[in-house]
Write a structure and sequence with these properties.
By secondary structure, the chain is an all-alpha fold. It is 59% helix and 2% strand. The chain starts with a helix and ends in an 11-residue tail after the last helix.
């Protein structure tokens, strides 16, 4: 009967072979990526990583072989690549895997700061769910200026729930969640709500409950940068 150590070794060998096979899809760096995956990826969630490699291949295919060979020797890029794989093990949708791969590709820059920027964005992305990203994308354009196609494609999610005295329990639940999404986006510095000022005094206004009144949220420069780096600016909807 095989020992636990032998079973673990066999399982690890199997995982490495599967991952390396998937990484063969990457034309210029398949063997390199395969070695990295064999070291850093946990024993579970192999399918997620294999799907992520396909998304990564799509992104890296836009980079010249010479440029890619140059970057895969840099410690900063290897660190960024490892972070991408670790997040891919937790990604539950192809859309999320595509966002991660897009950030990795956009991190291919001569300046080290680009690597640090990309890793920071990966950290922010890991804190957001897909619905929160959808709400962030909602504020890319001012509501009054249109972006009707995007709003129409996602109306089921972006339909703002306003509380009334006759609101149902379901409406109250949806309103609570929407408020939570926006609050989280503001906490991360991706949205910003400016206070409403009294026209006469210039001081912030408060409602009858003593809560600060705020204008509709606006997307920040960081929010715009994140959407650009994950390739979401021109996408009309999420694949849910």
């Amino acid at each position: 009967m095989a020992s636990n150590k032998e079973l673990d070794n066999n399982l690890n060998d199997f995982i490495v072979s599967v991952l390396k096979g998937a990484s063969g899809l990457v034309p210029f760096a398949g063997s390199f990526i395969g070695e990295v995956m064999g070291i850093i990826i946990p024993n579970q969630r192999i399918d997620r990583v294999a799907k992520y490699v396909q998304k990564l291949e799509e992104q890296l295919s836009e980079v010249s072989p010479e440029r890619l060979r140059e970057f895969i020797t840099k410690d900063e890029f290897i660190d960024l690549l490892e972070e991408g794989f670790l997040q891919a093990t937790r990604a539950t949708s192809d859309q999320r895997r595509e966002y991660i791969a897009c950030i990795i590709k956009n991190g291919l820059d001569e300046a080290m700061i680009a690597y640090q920027d990309s890793k920071h964005l990966l950290g922010i992305l890991s804190e957001l769910n897909d619905i929160e990203l959808l709400w962030l994308r909602r504020y890319w354009f001012p509501f009054a200026n249109g972006d009707e196609e995007f709003l129409k494609a996602n109306k089921d999610v972006l339909n703002t729930i306003l509380l009334t005295t006759s609101a149902t329990d379901e409406e109250r639940r949806k309103h609570m969640l929407q408020e939570s999404y926006l609050t989280h986006l503001e906490r991360l510095g991706l949205l910003m709500s400016k206070p409403i000022l009294d026209r006469k005094t210039g001081q912030p206004e408060y409602n009858s409950s003593g809560v600060l009144r705020k204008k509709s949220p606006e997307i920040t420069n960081l929010g715009r940068y994140l959407l650009k780096q994950i390739g979401l600016v021109n996408r009309l909807y999420f694949e849910r």
